[in-house]
Amino acid sequence: MHHRLPLCLLLVVALLIAAPLGADPLDDGPYVFHTGTQTEAQWVCSGKVEKRAIADDGRVEPVCGSVPALVLDRAPAIAPDQLPQPRRWAAVSDIHGQAGLFLRLLAAHGLVDRDAHWVWGKGVLVITGDVLDRGPQQLEALWAIYRLAQEAALAGGRVEMLLGNHEIMVIVGDLRYLNPKYQHVANLLGRSYDQLFAADSELGAWLRRRATLLKLGDTLFVHGGLHPRLANGNFDLAALNAAFRARLGATREALHPDPEGEWLLGAEGPTWYRGYFEPERATTTQVDALLAIAKIKRVVVGHTTQAQITSLYGGRVIGIDAALKNGERGELLIWDRDKLWRGLLDGTRSPLASSDDAP
To answer: What is the pTM of this model?
Structure first.
């Protein structure tokens, strides 16, 4: 199956990819902040700050940059812990500021139209974290996901973004992977970059309402993975997500006397775990125990980059970080008609590659 990418979307993608990396003129925004009953949007336009008050209808008209008009969500809700099995779903991970490539991939497989609007009806798209850091279009990617979630909901579908370790790093002020462009933006706006995503910002509040784990029918999505220790007790998805949200933004010092929080946000927690790919690898017996206690058939993870979307442990684990973050290629995991596919950048579908050397 082949799709020809419309000229209009090619132009949009070209503009996004050509976004400056700190060179003048610098355009970025909007960053939206709430103070009491007032809402203000801020942009950097050709290196200068522009501010606009936002009316009660929540509409944010573009002043500059690549982000189109937005309507703020006036009835925000906490992201779900689980959803029923849809007829079709897709998943992508580790966008890392590559908005142009992300939208091109969605368009190639018919999730969005030539203007990057949702056209996948009741389908469900899951982004398993790490939209932030590295690339130069992270704000464009975040607002695109925010907008597509609204459009999908109106069509009976869903777009759900989970938290990855890089969202958490930015929230706590660990900016070591931040694209240099954004440090310049933060300096101009007069806030440290993590404060551009503080709880008083629209995107900061939105990120704090996201889930860390999502069960979609018989599949569980998480950024890093499920450590085998999670099979040792009651697997309470809602409690795990709530515990994670309660500790977002906590410093390492604050977490030190909190063993559960220190573990959840640490190397063995759901956003950092790499034990399906790196030593000491989880065994097939341990993975089976996790699937049994979570009542799922498979777990879909990002975080650990593969050459392509890969099936591990006999299909029990699917790794979907296919290096989109490098800005050159990327893949979409597609569930359609009870079968899993690799969705390639040219719009074709390919069977999953398998790596069944699990212990």
So the answer is: 0.91
